[in-house]
UniProtKB/TrEMBL annotation:
Organism this protein belongs to: Ahrensia marina
Any single Pfam family the record assigns to this protein: ROK
Superkingdom: Bacteria
UniProt record similarity statement: Belongs to the ROK (NagC/XylR) family.
Lineage of origin: Bacteria, Pseudomonadati, Pseudomonadota, Alphaproteobacteria, Hyphomicrobiales
Protein name: ROK family transcriptional regulator
């Protein structure tokens, strides 16, 4: 996954925190690709000496490397600095009810190792042991020093906390009363960023596409919605914004939850397959034009059309993106069969982006997005410290 420039970030005054200025400098360099000290100082409103000290610290920590020189009129060419891809790494983890995906991602956003394992169960002890094993495997394969791991981004199906909703087989059994954040931090001995799968997938898509206002419909076991507004995730008061799977849509059998009509769990139920049908089997049935699956897809397209009307009129996005754990041919079919709502604020001619499209990050979107939660923290000053 190649990272595209992020919005430029201003520095803090001299009396503000050293860490925030380091993060701001890294964010500037990431956005530009490479920069010199004088340019960084101008952009951040810091003295050249202060930036020189920051650069020296970042080089000592292995986060920056010299990247040649650039002539700027009279005087000596200015030394340019770039992000050292191998200076730090993020662990990305996506946990689904039936599988775990992991990735180690460098500072340029490239996945250096990935793993996928089927889960016999998703009880905490079993899952933690599996995660530790996968991390060890990836570190051994890549030769990455575990001291270079800056943190772990972990995504799990929502909702978080005790709420009035639950998934149709898409939740993690036994986790509702646990402090998942504390549990993962203790097990991994790393800083942890916890998010839901749809939010992480939206982050991954935002990095690769550069879109700053969009909605991401994420097909995990269930169905979630990640919302990016002005380049930032919309999380809600308790981290549960976007639980669109629980919204009601009209069907031939009356009002039903969207997730019951449009998710992998819904396919399994419709095909009377319980948990015996996986993504590969679903794609095979689609390629065979299986009548039962095609019937489900056509009904799903109708449910999706209703969801689009809701999302577009509530959030006015540049685009709505489909992605996650669903075969690409099925997503393509849905995008072509779904009727775009006429009564929508998005029904306009001056938007250069398609109203409905398929994501670019594939089935690893949430896993890579989980890692990006850690990378973004390295490059973005904490607003509370500014």
């Amino acid at each position: 996954m190649i990272m595209t420039p992020a919005p430029l970030i201003s520095g803090t005054n001299a009396e503000r925190s050293r860490m925030s200025n380091r993060q701001a400098a890294l964010g500037q360099i990431r956005s530009a690709g490479q920069m010199g000290r004088a340019e960084i100082a101008r952009n951040l409103g810091l003295s050249t000496q202060a930036v020189s000290n920051i650069i020296a610290d970042l080089q000592a920590d292995g986060l920056l490397v010299e990247a040649g020189t650039r002539s700027q009129g009279r005087g000596l060419p200015a030394v340019q600095y770039g992000i050292n891809a191998e200076g730090g790494y993020a662990l990305g983890v996506e946990i689904r009810p039936d599988a775990i995906f992991t990735a180690i991602v460098d500072l340029h956003g490239n996945a250096t190792a990935t793993r996928r394992r089927t889960l016999k169960n998703n009880e905490p002890e079993y899952l933690i042991n599996m995660l530790l094993k996968l991390r060890a495997e990836m570190l051994e394969k890549t030769g990455v020093d575990d001291k270079r791991l800056m943190g772990a981004g972990i995504v799990i199906p929502g909702p978080f906390g005790q709420t009035g909703v639950s998934g149709l087989g898409s939740d993690l059994a036994g986790w509702q009363h646990l402090d998942a954040h504390a549990l993962f931090e203790e097990a991994l001995q790393l800083p942890v960023e916890l998010s839901n799968d749809a939010n992480a997938a939206a982050m991954s898509e935002q990095i690769t596409t550069g879109l700053n206002n969009f909605a991401y419909l994420y097909f995990g076991a269930g169905l979630g919605l990640g919302l990016i507004n002005q380049g930032q995730l919309v999380k809600g008061a308790f981290g549960n914004a976007g639980e669109i799977g629980h919204v009601q849509v009209m069907t031939a059998n009356g009002p039903q939850s969207l997730e019951s009509q449009l998710s992998r769990v819904a396919i399994q139920k419709h095909m009377n397959a319980n948990n015996t049908i996986d993504i590969t089997a679903i794609e095979y049935l689609f390629n065979q034009s299986d009548p039962k699956l095609m019937q489900w897809l056509d009904a799903g397209a109708d449910a999706l059309s209703q969801a689009l009307a809701l999302i577009e009129n509530l959030f006015d996005p540049q685009s709505i993106i489909l992605g996650g754990a669903m075969p690409a041919p099925l997503l393509e079919y849905l995008t072509t069969r779904t009727v775009l709502p006429t009564l929508s604020v998005s029904n306009r001619e001056d938007n250069p982006h398609p109203r409905l499209q398929i994501g670019t990050c594939g089935r690893m979107a949430a896993t890579l997005g989980a890692a990006s939660l850690i990378l973004n923290r390295a490059f973005t000053p904490n607003a509370t410290s500014l």
